[in-house]
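Hello again, I could really use a second opinion on something today. For a while now I've been wondering how a particular protein folds. Please have a think about how the structure follows from the sequence. Here's the protein in full, and shout if anything looks odd to you:

***
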Amino acid sequence: MSQLIQSFLRNNNFNKKDEQIYLDIFQHGQSFASSVALRTGIDRTTVYSALKRLLKKGVIAQTQMNDVKAYMAVSPEIFIDNVERKIHELESEKKMAGLFVQEMAKMQKSAFLQPKIRIFEGDEAIINLYSQTLKKGGLQKSFLTLDSFPASLRPFLTKQFIEFKKRQKVFSRVLVAEGKKSERYKALDHVSNRETRIVKGHPFQLYAEIILFGGTQVAIIDFHQQIYGMAINSATFYKTVETLFDFVWQRR
């Protein structure tokens, strides 16, 4: 069995016995359970259990030969059909989500104003805040602290966040204080959609992270003791912090 076939079947929730039995039937054609057990060396009880799972997946079909149940493989193109069905379902869900957002926007205009300051506490809430900073095709400007970076957020920020950032085509400019961690961070700019500038020779030390995004929003995240963050929606506050960022960026 090729690595590609094995990997594909595993990704479609086939266990090892399912793989063996499915491929045996595919190779030998219409087969009795007893024949499958004999060829694969798998006991009949396990074969029957696997056949039930494969029938449920729709990758094999059941027939009758001389009043005895036999099994045959369905065309592998069924896997393409299943993917196309999932794509169609996701497109329908996306359309419904878009309509939902439109209806919620109508409620927002007529019922309440979005708060200017939103508070986020705990790991999951901070992950949510980071995700909200990824406005499609946008530019982030960040004051970043690396010294107090929490280990609990590292898997998200070093992998998922960067992958989503690339999909959203978000680019960031980052300012960090001088240090060994900063050099390592900057070395990964080319795979992280960002440009990092290290501020050297100045009393420049950050104790909280600040992210400018969306043209009007500023996220402030404090990793000391209890993880805590806030998002401020204010064009004037954004411009004020952006002015400070641009000043340091140009003179670093």
Observations:
- Residues 190 and 196 are 10 Å apart (CA to CA).
- The longest strand covers residues 171-177.
- The domain at 117-251 is CATH 3.30.870.10 (Endonuclease; Chain A).
- The mean pLDDT is 89.
